[in-house]
Amino acid sequence: MNTNRKFESKMSKNRHLDPHCEAILEEYRDNLPRFREVEVQVRDMLIRTLSEAGLLVAALESRIKEYDSLAGKLELKGHKYSSLADLTDILGLRIITFYIDDVDIVASAVERLFTIDWDNSVDKRKIHEIDSFGYLSLHYICSIPGFPYRFEIQMLTLLQHAWANMNHDTGYKSGVEIPKGYMRNMSRLAGMLELVDDEFSKIRIELTDYRRRVQALVKSGNLDEVSIDGDTFRSYLELNPFGQLNKRIASINQAEIQDVPLMPYLAVFKGMGLKTLGDIASIVRNYSEGAYQIACYQIGLTDLDIIASSIGPQNLCIAYILKNGGGKAGLRYMFDLLNGESESNATIADMMLEQAKDLPFMNTGN
Amino acid sequence: MEIKVNTKDSVTTAQLIGRLDTPASQEVSGDFDNLMQFAAGTIILDCTQLEYISSSGLRLFLSLRKAAASKGGKVIVKAINNDIRSVFMMTGFLNLFEIQN
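YS: structure for the whole thing
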């Protein structure tokens, strides 16, 4: 008998377990390696499926019941179990979601992956009376082919998880009678967290609706109605608004266009005082010629045959700033926003100013 | 064109010396391939003694940056002269790199 088994045996002897419970513990010890394998297998299946569904969860926890914890459980109610297979929480997993709506989405994924023992699964969200508040979580008892034991998957939100852990930490399972004042305070907290979970969910739904409406407006071309922010600008970029200008600039040297992130230009356009996507579209319409002239001047006499997809918006901003009297300060501000504040941005601004002053667009209407 | 590489902890510094024109870019492409192995950390391209960069040179910089981005590392371009800064700006790549003076 190894040291671990000696210790475990001593622990169980201290617990006054009958031979029936000892047999269950023996079965537990013999199957522990298999439980560990299944723990990894189930975790991998869940991680893969949630990832494929694009569902971000706060955490996925798992544990195998400790020997002593099982011995304690058997000491209290070992007569309820005929064998280890009757215990459904030897392997337990907990999937913690950010949003309350995601609990049901996770549940449907779990239903697809595993066989659910519906008779023993519990939706604790539904068992509360209308005037009581407490532990809200969805517990599925599951099984997989080739493994004779069931396991439990709990699904709950981050706030429900926090509440459950705090409640557990105070020892509600210890058998000591809990003061009513404490129970009442925990119930009040549970009620409050339920409200907070609902509010988070509402905010997400409203945000999703907003994004959908904005995308529809962008796609329908009603750009004047769409304010510039991170979401709207990203949607706008999907329309490739600078594509035509970039191609025209690339044609100067038959250059290859390398796609680069254009989101940094959000700050520049906002810094230029633009309010709507319509304002950006207007700049594309009115300043593309100036942007092209800048490019011709700069790369026309070089053999540079690679450009970034940011060349279009960059030159548009330069043309707009110069044409509207922004001068060196405006250009420097633009390069500071793009490259981070640096004295070298002043050098670039000076160079741009010098190059652009004699370009035709500077001396025409737009 | 010469490249001197020095690695300390997770920071690799490559000193670029000379002109990175098209023939030189072909000559040192193997050196840039070797730098890819450090792409999970920080790679500093020290351009203090770099006099010129062509499109081919830009492509080498971009490949290295792409490798670093995919491995969670980063490429810092250090001490470029005004002509090279101008090339980065004219092609739109200036804000793609972290540039240090």
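YS: worth flagging: The helical segments of chain B are 22-35, 55-71, 82-91.
IM: good catch. Also Chain B touches chain A at residues 54-55, 58-59, 62, 82, 85-87, 89-96, 99, 101 (CB under 8 Å).
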